[in-house]
Amino acid sequence: MVLNVTDNPDKKRYEANVEGSMAFLEYIKAKDKIYLTHTEVPTALEGKGIGSSLVLKVLEDVERQDLTLVPLCPFVAMYLKKHPEWKKLVMKGINIE
């Protein structure tokens, strides 16, 4: 699924409007780091790959901005386990197994 994901700095989250509902990934930015704290997909949209598509778009943006990733959200950590090519963005010393 291709999502149109936008950064909403006022709410400190990336957002994707899907079928009239809002999926989002909250973050905290501090200097050159981004802490991904919480992913939320509306119940009616669960199981459709929206969360994974959202995380992918966010990781692409993190890479484009040359930020260091600190994955505090369990869903993001799970995504990184399944897609180890993105672990290059993760702050040194954080182990995702």
UniProtKB/TrEMBL annotation:
Domain N-acetyltransferase, which positions? 6-91
Instruction: Specify whether Transferase is a keyword of the entry.
Output: yes
Source taxon at top rank = Bacteria
Keywords noted in UniProt: Acyltransferase, Transferase
This one is known as GNAT family N-acetyltransferase
Question: EC top class, in one word?
Answer: transferase
Q: Which InterPro entries match?
A: Acyl_CoA_acyltransferase, Gcn5-rel_NAT, GNAT_YJDJ
Q: What EC number(s) does the entry state?
A: 2.3.1.-
